[in-house]
Specification:
Structural class: mainly alpha
Strand content: under 5%
Radius of gyration: 22 Å
Shape: elongated
Number of helices: 2
Helix content: over 70%
Number of domains: 1
Oligomer: single chain
Length: about 100
C-alpha cells in the first residue's frame, strides 16, 4: 500500500496516534485501578518504571494487533473465495 493510494491521510495519522497513545491510556487505567485497590502507592514509581510499563504495553498491543491482522488475512484469502464460490453455485442452481 503506497501513501498516494490512500484517499484520506488524516485517517492514517489518526490510526498512528491511536497506536501510540492507546497503551498510555491502558497504563493510566491500570495504575488507577492499582491505586484504587491499594496495591500501588502513586509516588513510589519512577519515570523509568513508568516508561518500562509503557513499552511493555506497546509491545503487547503490537503483537496482538499483528496476530489479529494475520488471522483476518488468512480468513479473507482462504475462506472468502470458497464462500463466494458456494454462493455462486447456489445462485446458478436456483435459476
Amino acid at each position: 500500500m503506497r501513501v498516494p493510494d490512500i484517499p484520506d491521510r488524516l485517517v492514517v495519522v489518526l490510526i498512528g496516534v491511536s497506536v501510540l497513545f492507546l497503551p498510555l491510556v491502558l497504563l493510566g487505567l491500570t495504575l488507577g485501578f492499582l491505586a484504587f485497590v491499594g496495591e500501588l502507592v502513586p509516588g513510589r514509581l519512577s519515570l523509568v518504571e513508568l516508561l518500562e510499563l509503557y513499552v511493555i504495553e506497546l509491545l503487547v498491543l503490537t503483537v496482538f494487533s499483528y496476530g489479529l491482522y494475520r488471522l483476518v488475512r488468512i480468513l479473507v484469502v482462504h475462506k472468502l473465495p470458497e464462500s463466494l464460490d458456494s454462493l455462486d453455485e447456489d445462485d446458478s442452481t436456483e435459476r
